[in-house]
Amino acid sequence: MRFIDYLKDHFVYFLIFLFAVFTVEVFVLTDGGSLWVSVYIFIAFFGAYILALFVDFLRRKHFYDVVYKSLEELDKAYLLPEVMEEARFTEGRILKDILETTEKSMAENVNSYKYNNEEYKDYIEMWIHEIKLPIAAGKLTAENNPGEAMESVKEELDKIENYTETALYYARSFSVEKDYIIKKVSLRELVGEVIIKNKKPLISRRIKVDLHDLDISVYSDSKWLLFILGQIVANCIQYVEDGTGVIEFYAAGGREGHALHIKDNGCGISENDLPRVFEKGFTGANGRVRKRATGIGLYLSKKLCLKLGHDIKIYSGEGRGTEVVISFPEGSFYSVIGG
Predict the structure, then answer these.
(1) Do 244 and 282 fall into the same domain?
(2) Which stretches of the chain are assigned E, i.e. beta strand?
(3) Which residues belong to any copy of the Histidine kinase domain (predicted)?
């Protein structure tokens, strides 16, 4: 807040003051008063007025400087009314009252939104759990009635089940901290579960699986990590060739933690697409050609890894296959527990 700006705001009052002083001066001079008395009255009135303006300016400047400083230091600007000091002038008190009323209204709207969001999330989760029953019944019926047509039905039911599972984890991804149990898990066991879950496409497409150096345990949530690995393996299966595809799993450890490597010999990812693979809905050139990519799997994997204190990176090149590395830093367990 600058003094020149303050004077501009009070320009009208200054003109009124000058008019009042001029009127007094005319009255004094016409009533027989001396010129020196007239000059003294002008200097006294003018000095008192400027001093009053300057004192008022300093009071307001201090208040607004503190407000701006508090605003810069706050991570959440909407908390400003909570840290504002009490103003010593009317406009400042009015401003604080307005901000407090606005903050209260915003908090009510946010709470209403959170309630509606939780209600919608609960409905989605309930619907997904309910839809699993007819899917399971359909798969059981297909199993009991073997045939070429039923194999196609089972394949489509597996796709529906995978899509509903992805939807469930997407709904839960906004509140992972309420739905995880961090404990020591075996990478060999988790990788084994993922392979068993994907055995049909692996066998039908004659994709080789190479496992080695997996006797390492890390701190994570087995359910969430299993989902993440499932998304990565599904991508590997999608982009390798039938009969010649290879997916390799191995783990490596070091002073800073452990890492799980998942490599394939598929078509790879172009340099232009690689920086965007974790963006929601991004499918890239290969995803558009294959027409099966949704752009959600890797986005969810990245999001869940960050929430669990892990790191995930992808290394690839067009025609050179793809390598996904999930890192488990030594201190990630404690950082997740701490919030």
Answers:
(1) yes
(2) 183-186, 208-212, 217-220, 246-254, 257-264, 311-316, 322-329
(3) 126-332
Give the model's pLDDT for residue 339. Answer: 44
Residue keyed to tokens 């599904």? 234
Task: Give bridge partners of residue 313 from the DSSP assignment.
Answer: 325
3 state DSSP class of 295: coil
Tokens found for residue 306? 């960050």
| pLDDT score, position 178 | 61
> Closest by alpha carbon to 21, among 53, 40, 45?
45
Measured distance CA(234)–CA(200) in Å, rounded: 12
Q: Are residues 217 and 321 in the same domain?
A: yes
Write b or e for each residue in 19-58: b if 16 or more Cβ atoms lie within 10 A of its Cβ, otherwise e: eebeeebeebeeeeeeeeebeeebeebeeebeeebeeebe
The DSSP letter of residue 145 is: S
Q: Cα–Cα distance between 246 and 206 in angstroms, integer?
A: 9
| Residue-wise DSSP of 146-210 | -SHHHHHHHHHHHHHHHHHHHHHHHHHGGGGGGS---EEEEHHHHHHHHHHHTHHHHHHTT-EEE
What's residue 293's pLDDT? 62
Identify any residues that bridge with 263 across adjacent strands, giving them in sequence order: 248, 323
Structural domain range at position 134? 130-174
Query: Domain tally for the chain?
Result: 3
**pLDDT tens digits for 215-247?**
989 989 898 999 999 999 988 998 899 999 999
Structure tokens at 183: 């404990």
* Regions of the chain short of the pLDDT cut 50: 291, 333-339
| Tokens coding 148 | 């070429």
- 118 lies in some domain: no
Residue 111 lies in a domain: no
Tell me: the pLDDT tens digits for 75-95? 878 778 887 888 888 888 888
The reply to whether the predicted model has a pTM over 0.70 is: no
